[in-house]
## 1
Amino acid sequence: MTTTARRVFLSQATALTASLAVPAFAQSGPEFKLKFASNLPVIHPLNVRAKEAADAIAKDSGGKIEIQVFPNNQLGSDTDMLSQIRSGAIDFFTLSGLILSTLVPVASINGIGFAFKDYEQVWAAMDGELGAFVRGAIAKAGLVAMNKIWDNGFRQITTSTKPITSPADLKGFKIRVPVSPLWTSMFKAFDAAPASINFAEVYSALQTKIVEGQENPLAIIQTAKLYEVQKYCSLTNHMWDGFWFLVNGKLWEKLPKELKDVVAKHVDAAALHERDDVRRLNNSVEVELKAKGMAFNTVNADPFRAALKKAHFYSDWKAKYGADAWALLEKYSGKLE
Ligand code: X2X
């Protein structure tokens, strides 16, 4: 080989090696550029873990899937985002089952007042037959719910005016609730005055005193800084709430099997991490919230449960969900009526 020929050969070889070393995706860009949206602050574990899942999915799909994360209602309120996930304007969305119930009625069943006593019951139900039943109903509405529901937590009542110690304290009380018939019905059963407001508007509704109080898990009271506009926190644990990780149905059909597997694997793994994070936060954050000036009280759940019974809350909702769904709830929660 002459020197020139050798040089040409080497440069061709280098070019060849270089082109082999560059994965296909770097030349063509991702095949699926997708959007994930949520209503929670960027520092909430749900968004931290969703971002981790997005990174793992990008890597494991060889760059074929890119997921952009939009936290904090950047793309609109829950009501807006529910329309967007249905139309395909967004691809992934974490939504409380209770709010999803405006489209899939049975999806609110886990929020029945004082049903679950602890996380052991919650995960047995939601990773078991009750969760499977709800996911089946979600699928019929054209959305796909990943297997593992993400934790929001047991909900507590905060107020700017007084602690809630008994159902009597809720009489006429102006409380913000998320947009969901179950929430409204439950606080009406306590004779409160619930106002349906999307989370995007909650801080300002509290700040401007449109409502006196709201209810959310401690992790949200902390990460959304609701302590800045609320004084009292009453540990009612009145319901457990979780976020279904929803996927637009048409996108899911379109995704090849191996990419579906990559998405499901990382999203469900992230859900389990998020559950740990949220539980830890809910258990530890009380001290910080006290330091920020919130006053805490515990309550006895019995009179609250009795008030709901008296208002026919349980029997009315049993009739709405149907005996089959109700039996699945009670399988895990124990008898409620
Ligand atoms: O809207 C709420 O209060 C929140 C953040 O907990 C839900 O998404 C249900």
## 2
Amino acid sequence: MAAPVTPFDRAMSFMRSSFDRIKLLELEKKLLSTPQHILRHDISFERDDGKMMKVHGYRVQFNNARGPYKGGIRYHPAADIDEVKALAALMAVKTAVVNIPFGGAKGGIQIDPKILSSAELERLSRAYMKSIADDIGPDIDVPAPDVNTNPQIMAWMRDEYEKIKNVYAPDLITGKPLSYGGSLGRDKATARGGFFILEQLSKLEAINLREARVAIQGFGNAGSEIAMFLHDAGAQIVAVSDSHGGIYSKVGLDPIRIEKYKRKTGSVSGQYCEGSVCDLKRLKMDETEVISNEDLLTCDCDILIPAALDNVITEKNAKSVKAKIILELANGPVSPEADAILEKRGTIVVPDVLANAGGVTVSYFEWVQGRSGDQWTAEKVDRELRRIMLQSFDDVRSEAKRKNLTYREAAFDVAIGRIVEAMRVRGWTT
Ligand code: GLU
């Protein structure tokens, strides 16, 4: 069989191996390999110079057997229909792994949002909402932020929907600002959920987190927050990177300082380098080296956290990964071929559908609060998130032990088992 080439091929490769293990009927396999709805729209919006710009927008509603479709919206040049389909399938698996009453969806606009002013971003976001408003809703499909989208964008979208439909809909969309129906703890939820899993995993594997050396690829929301949680827990952050490259220090980096410089200069190496010109004396004094994103993945560390792009650990570099544990905070960072290599080498991979599910879990809390009018305290959000993450990890770990599987295989089996069970009781498969 040829190697999987597109994001959807890669997602389906993980799904299919699970279909075979849990012995699904042909119809069930077919239903779980095909999105239920694909919405494609050409979105037109006005640029600041008065000219109209047209971009492709998508919403893929993959499966809603367990509840309303759920998943983020990303703005990215690579967000084509294939990628959005893959991410929608992974969302269906993710909501089932953490057992929250949602299905899976994903949205995308194929654009680099960095070229847009804030006013253009608002017009684009409102135009996108206009195009999907008839097909989503609090009981139908509940969007959220993803790559390059944020609470402000969610606020514009909710406002647009409420105007179009003439309704009050605090439960339409999650990841909103706190002042407009957001939940405490949503901003840090992805990192917090991943941290809870890492804490538990290190206990079970007799790894002392205080002695662990951690490398993090990506210093956006999830990457920078987990760096802070791990730093506070006493772990040593030895490497971080962003799209411009990264830094490594065997004596450990201070994520608070990196965050400060990243805000000031736009990159994690900004305290040492201006463009490609670096202050070698300062680097030497701090025992720090400038590294590439590729170097980061194979650097000397105990825990590797890909928190940026998909498909970064492939058959080309998997053999060189030195970490004992990989926590997938990004969606789809490890290819199926790399996954097989890592398994053979005994690397523990905590898959995306579990590792980064803290985000959608707190989205669920936000949706519950929006529907009930209740407001949870930060303590309650944290407590409930911890409970769900640990329960889900335990479910996956038990399945892995019982059937002698990797965590990824076990997570897919648990999730697909739950989705199929819902499809069967609903009478979809007979
Ligand atoms: N975009 C996030 C993810 O990939 C969150 C989705 C959500 O909250 O619905 O899990």
